[in-house]
Amino acid sequence: MRRSLLLILSLVVALGAVPAGAGPNREARGPDEFRMFGGGFGHGIGLSQWGAFGLARHGWAPKKILKHFYSGTRVVTRSGPAELRIGLVQGAEVVRLQAESGAVELHLGTQGGETVATIPSGETWRVWASGNEYRIVDGGGATVDTVGGPGNPLFIVYAPRDSRVRIPEAGHAYNRGSIGFDLYSCDAGNCTMHLVLSLDPQAYLYGLGEVPSSWPMSAMKAQAIAARTYAFTKAAASQHRSGCDCALYASSVDQVYAGWDKEGGTDGDRWVQAVRHTNDQVVVDGGQTIQAFYMSSSGGYTENNENVWGGAPIGYLRGVCDPGDYTSSNPNATWRETFSPSQLTQELGLGIGTVTGFGDIDRGVSGRIMSVVVKGGSGVATISGTKLRSALGLPDDRLWINDDRRVVGAIRAKYDALGCSPGLPTSRQTAVAGGSRQKFKKGTIFLSGATGAHELHGAVLRHYLSHGGPGGRLGFPETDVQRLDSGNLRARFEGGAIVCRPDGSCRID
Predict the structure, then answer these.
(1) Is the pLDDT of residue 29 over 60?
(2) Can you spell out the DSSP letters for 231-286?
(3) In angstroms, how far is CA 85 from the centroid of its own chain?
């Protein structure tokens, strides 16, 4: 009887050690919310548009900006193709044509071919893909004509020459070049239409809507040169890509082409001036125009191409410090997004149960996530940073999860001035002894109202911390670490100086 009682008591104690409900099927509980602390907008490769904006504000010239973001390149003058084919619309069954500031004509076969219809100024007509032909319908809904077909296209002609055509399906108005219709995918007699604009490269750039026309002139010139380079490289590969029968899409797939809405918009004359002043200038590497990728904001550091898109490393697409990106004008210099576990679980759709955490994060040179392990209640999954960004609708994948390591304020200004040499942040900004500090892979930046921000590293930093850091008798640093002619390292503090010899031995002066 006594033995049985002891056995029962042992079982009760053992069971009591198991948390209620923590059986084998219970999902491990993670945090109640996941906060994403990040910076940047886009893929992170090549020229940072907001970075160029900031560097232009600091007095950088266009060529200096371009050679900074495209490592080892040169800017040269070179003629490109006589014309570029720009894909305005794909897969449409009907296209609306609004005549602005004058009549718009439709010609059959070629731009100089037979005039089959004239749209009066102010009216909106439609062109339908009707079987294997184009059906032209006027503003009242009446069919004007049914003409053409595969191999016998329609062309839009501005008449008079200062008229414009607005195409809602393309999103903009156009006043340059030649816009041609093309029937394709004519299965069972039902076709769809491409609209392709053909125009010379300079005219194309006049309508490019990639940056505001109010930006500093150096930034706009850098953008014009990068965009021209991108277009020339794409056109050299093909002017008849399968998806659009074009060299370039008129969207963010390639470059945003806004036509007259850019050129004739607010400050459009400034953008046109930037294009004209950089006529035929392109970026080259080894004599060839480069793949001049660019994005909105780098968050402070661009990324190596292979870390984002895979493939072989490209010498001119190396990650570099972007000291111009952190400007108050940049809405994505830093950002924060918050998700509940259920939101993450639904958006990621990994089939691993409710998301409980993240781990084993592999980062590129910029800090962008290359891969991350997502932990769930019933399993784990490894995904790329690109998938994390796209699934959650994040501006960028240069981010930290539930750990705010963003570099901001006076510490960011010092970090940028050092060319990002302290490396990636390893901590958040923390209050210390009447000031603050932030740790990085290769050093620490200390900040106080009296001394400003200064960076310490190596033996000087170690000796400083061994003597109490900011809370010790030395107080806050008044200089960065400096290398003396003797080879010694020295930094001055509120309460003295630290000098370290090359062998790592240090003293306080």
Answers:
(1) yes
(2) HHHHHHH-SS-TTTSSSEESSTTS--B-THHHHTSTTHHHHHHHHHHTTTEEEEET
(3) 25
pLDDT of residue 5: 37
Helix H or strand E segment including 489: strand 489-493
Q: What is the pLDDT of residue 28?
A: 63
For residue 9, the 8-state DSSP code is H
Q: How many CA atoms lie within 13 A of 187 on its CB side?
A: 1
Q: Which has more pLDDT, 130 or 447?
A: 447
Q: How far apart are CA 325 and CA 339, in angstroms?
A: 26
Phi-psi map region of 485: left, alpha, beta (phi>0 left; psi -120 to 50 alpha): alpha
Structure tokens at 252: 């963010």
274-332 residue pLDDT tens? 999 999 999 999 999 999 999 999 999 999 999 999 999 999 999 999 999 999 999 99
pLDDT, average across residues 227-254: 97
Among candidate residues 430, 412, 434, 432, the one with its CA nearest the CA of residue 422? 412
Cα–Cα nearest to 429, from 37, 57, 26, 2: 37
| 3-state SS class at 314 | coil
Q: Mention every residue, 6+ apart, whose C-beta is less than 8 A from residue 363.
A: 369, 370, 424
pLDDT of residue 13: 39
Encoded tokens for 2: 């006594």
d(CA 233, CA 254): 12
Where would I find the H helices in 163-216?
Answer: 201-206
User: Is 446 within 8 Å of 477 (Cβ atoms)?
Assistant: yes
Residue 316 main-chain phi, psi, to 5 deg: -90, 0
Q: What is the mean pLDDT of residues 260-279?
A: 98
Q: How many CA atoms lie within 13 A of 135 on its CB side?
A: 14
Q: Are 350 and 374 in contact (CB under 8 A)?
A: yes
Position 131 scores a pLDDT of 85
**To which residue do tokens 């074009």 refer?**
246
